[in-house]
Every structure is written in structure tokens, then in C-alpha cells.
Amino acid sequence: MKWVSALSRQTDIDSAVQEAAELAIRQLGKDHADLTIVFVSPQFSEFYDKVPDLISRYFKPGLLFGCSGGGIIGNGEEAEQQAALSITCAELPDVKIQPIQFDTTDLPDQDTSPSVWREWLKVDVEDNPHFVFLADPFSFRGEEFLAGVDFAYPSSKKVGGLASGAQALGDNALYLGDKIYHSGLVGIALSGDIE
Length: 195
What we know:
The chain contains 4 helices and 12 strands; from the N terminus they run βαβαβββββαβαββββ. The chain has 195 residues and is α+β, with helices and mostly antiparallel strands. The strands form 3 sheets. The chain has a 6-stranded mixed β-sheet, covered by helices on one side. It has a 4-stranded mixed β-sheet with strand order 7-12-8-9, with no helix packed on it.
């Protein structure tokens, strides 16, 4: 298992992606990853939809996952209130990475059984998954969602955060694979040889 991270403060989106991608590739020692996590500042909001294609020009990202953010962290540095983009790549042998995406306005009933939540999430509890979630704060029913996931997967670790940098519903970006969402939640379930 190997993780690398890179941060670019370039003010041009193409240059920012190129710089961060090349730094990540150099650290990873190869031009492909199993998981790539990207965070993009709101200074690039008009280019949010270009990010997946731009990243794919420089390397094979595996599963792309990430969101917009008011403060961007990469390679142990933080960029606040300025143009920035970070790319974190992971080489995860023997790890199953399952993508998750939901509009969290239509959740299972809070009084239902854990199996209903597991069926809704489509993640097998027998895999002993751990979760990373990123959500849009304007459309995410956080308390109800996390209570349901805790109920259904009590032994699993759950971490994550909120997309930021936007002032209204629909202005944040959530990345999962080659798709971009502007509301709800994206996530990954990690199982296998991972802690």
C-alpha cells in the first residue's frame, strides 16, 4: 500500500492539474493509481467539469474521488483563499474499492432494520468495509445518514467531510469516477487488505 500527495497553486486549471499530476506520478513511481483523490478550489469553479478529463491526460487515476474545497491540502501544505488543486494517489493491492453515490434526501426509515440500510447502500457487511464520504452541505441530511450507516455497519470506520467554497446549492462539485455531482453525497467503501 502506498499513498502520495501533491499540491499546485497554479492559477490556470490546465497548469495546476499538470503540475500536481506530474508531482504525484514522480512520487508514486508509475503513471497509474488504484484510487485518486482530488480537491479543487472555487477559483476554478467554471472548470470543475474539466477536472476528470484533465487528470486522465496525465495518468490513469483508477477510481477518481473528491470535491471542491475552500481550503486545499496536499503534500503537507495548505492553500487558503487562493487557486489550488491537490491530487492524492493510492496504490492499494488487495483492496476492493466500491463507489457510492446518493441523493440523501430520500433515506431509508430510521426505524427500519440494518439490513434495509445495507441493501440501500449496496455494500456487503461481510466485507468488513470502511467508508470515506464527501457531501454537499446544502443538500446532505448528515445526522440521519450517518446514524443509519452506523446502525448498519457498527464495526466499520467512517470518515469524511463536506465540500466547500460555494455559496448556494448546486455550486459545489463532488467527483466520483468520471461523473460530477452538485448535490448529495459521494463515497467509497474500502475492504480487504486495508486498515
